[in-house]
Amino acid sequence: MTRMTISAPTLVPIFATPFLVVSVDGAADMNAALVSLFLSRATEEYRDRAVSADPLCFRSREELFEWPDEAVEHLRRQMLAGVCAAVRATNLYTDAEFEALRVQVRARFAIVRPDGSIPAATAPMASWYAVYCVAAPAPAPARGDSGALRLYGVRDAKMFMDAANWRLRTPFGGTHHVWRLEPGQMAVFPASVLHEIALNRAEANLCLVMARLRFAHAGQTATPPW
To answer: 133, 137, 173, 191: which could form a disulfide with 168 (CB 3.0–4.6 Å)?
Structure first.
């Protein structure tokens, strides 16, 4: 193409999607207790019957944070504090305004066994989604994305693709994002983002806690049912 002398354009990122990583305090001891508890309750009694039964992936009902167990209560406090810090960092609220909001949450645990996965989906009736890693196997040498959290960039799905936009640089490209799950860390992102847990190619279980959250003003009276 012919080069012309012009002023440098002003480049402005728009429509950015926040993705936040939060480290949870006291994770080591808590995670050991959680793994034992979750394995003992990965039974038909606790299974979410709204989800198709899968021998390679157990998903509990979304009532985890209602359990009275000490480890679960500690996790609940830590996750809610972490999500609130993450959401606060993306908003224009003052500290006082944000503290006046009421948070609602539904959470479940999942055990992704070898060769299991969690299909791609969004989180309905929520504004934010959190994925906390309780336990993860060592990375599979042949598959770097084994058991990873994969988030799909679908905003540009209908874009006409040619030589000028198929290799845009970050943050403008439409490529997907892959996040390696590590025990003690939590990913927080908008609930509308299509996401999945990729196929677990390792020889051990992947144990997760997943929560969908929404916030309401103190005077808000009408909230859609979960």
So the answer is: 173
